[in-house]
Every structure is written in structure tokens, then in C-alpha cells.
Amino acid sequence: MTEKPDKWSDLAARAGSAAAMLVVGVWGMWVGGHVFHVLVSLICGLMIWELVRMIAPASGSLAIQLGGISALALILAIYLPTGFALPLLLAPALVGFGQLDKNRTIYMSFGVMVLLAGFGMMSVRDDLDLTWLLWLVCVVVATDVVGYFAGRMIGGPKFWPKVSPKKTWSGTGFGWVAAAVVGWVFALQTGANLELIGISIAISMASQMGDIAESAIKRAMDVKDSSNLIPGHGGVLDRFDGMLGASVFLLIIGQIVGFPPGLA
């Protein structure tokens, strides 16, 4: 009997945190511009802070310094021509590589992904408008939510039990289906061609890769959550790992396929 209040208390914390993140996130996306740039830069800075604390717990103030440098580099990069922005996006990874005494490759690789993802999200909002940022978020959220419930209800073979023991192939596959539905709906509403369905599935896969990559780091570092910043949810990295993979992938393929397909 004593366990039930604790469970309900945790559920309330999770729901409250989720509602707060939803309100802030939707507000930032809707307003766009400087507000969205600052919001994304702060989130990415926090992710870098969490990453350093995970891979080098004894790093002390270095985690704060690298998080601050990363946020500053990102907010400056979005206001510069792309050619000048690129060195800024890579610099924090190299600075950390030179300062850390272990797990340098993990930091450098994941650090670059965080800043490129933030830059990609801001670019989508600035260059393609709110519609396509909503599409990106909907694909990632649908992949995560539908995959979670499908995996729990259907079960079956595990995806990668040593790293992420709760993920199943059924949940993974239904996440792709959910992303395809999102792509189909947005194609109908925007006039984009049906290639958007295939792109949505690929974005879904990329978001799952981001999730798996962060899970692998946590398992290697023997930690449950990236931090305890978000009550009931863990850390910022735990909530945005899928968005990292999706945003970086869109930043890359957007130059290849001409995004949005049929409208570019």
C-alpha cells in the first residue's frame, strides 16, 4: 500500500514537467527568431554540461565552462554566414577534447552532434518556417510515443538488450509506421510530394539512432539518467536525444533531396 502514493507522486512530477516543457517548447517555436535561438542554445549548452558530467564526473567546473562555451558558440553561429558559422560549431568539441583527460572521443563526437542539431533546428525555423519545424518535432514525438506503447503491448524480440533492454523490434517498426503517417498528413496539408513519407521514415530512424547512441553512453558510464534536471524525466539529453539524430540527419539530407520535396 505504501508504494502507490510514491508511484502517483512520480506520475504527477512527470506530467507536470512534461506540461511545462510543452508550454515552453511550443511558445519558443511559435515566437521563433531571437527567442527560439536563445532557447535552443541554452538547451544545447545544458546537454553539453550533462555530457561532460557523465563521461568525466571529476571534471568539476569544466562541465560548466564547456556548456557555456557551446551555448555561446551556437547563438553566435546562427547569426553568421554559414561559412563562418561552421568553425564555431566545431570549436567547442576541440576545446573539450584538449581539456578532458578521458572519454575524449565520446565528447568530441557527441558534442559536434549536439551543436549541429541545435543549428539545424534553428535553421529549419528560420528558413522553412514553423510548419516544417512542427513536422520534425511530430515525427520524433510520434516515433517515440507510438514505439513505446507498441513495444509494451506487443513485446517480442529486443532491439539491443545489452544497451537498451526495454526497446523491441515491434516498437521500433511501429515508430516507423507512425512517422510515415505524419509524413503523409503533412504532405496532404502542405502540397509536398509523397517523398515526404520516405523522408519521415528516415528521420524516424535517425531519431532512434540518437536515442540509442545516448543509451550506449549511459550504459558505458553506468548511469541511469544524464542528470536530474527534469523531475520525473531525468536530464535534458534523455528528452532530446532523438531530436539530436533527427535534426542532424535533416541538416545533411536537406542539401541532397531538396527539402521540402516538391516545394524546394
TrEMBL record:
It holds the Pfam family CTP_transf_1. GO terms for cellular component: plasma membrane. It is a multi-pass membrane protein. Pathway: Lipid metabolism; Phospholipid metabolism; CDP-diacylglycerol biosynthesis; CDP-diacylglycerol from sn-glycerol 3-phosphate: step 3/3. Its EC number is 2.7.7.41. The chain crosses the membrane at residues 21-49, 69-94, 106-124, 130-149, 169-187, 243-263. Belongs to the CDS family. This is Phosphatidate cytidylyltransferase. It comes from Ascidiaceihabitans donghaensis. The lineage of its organism: Bacteria, Pseudomonadati, Pseudomonadota, Alphaproteobacteria, Rhodobacterales.
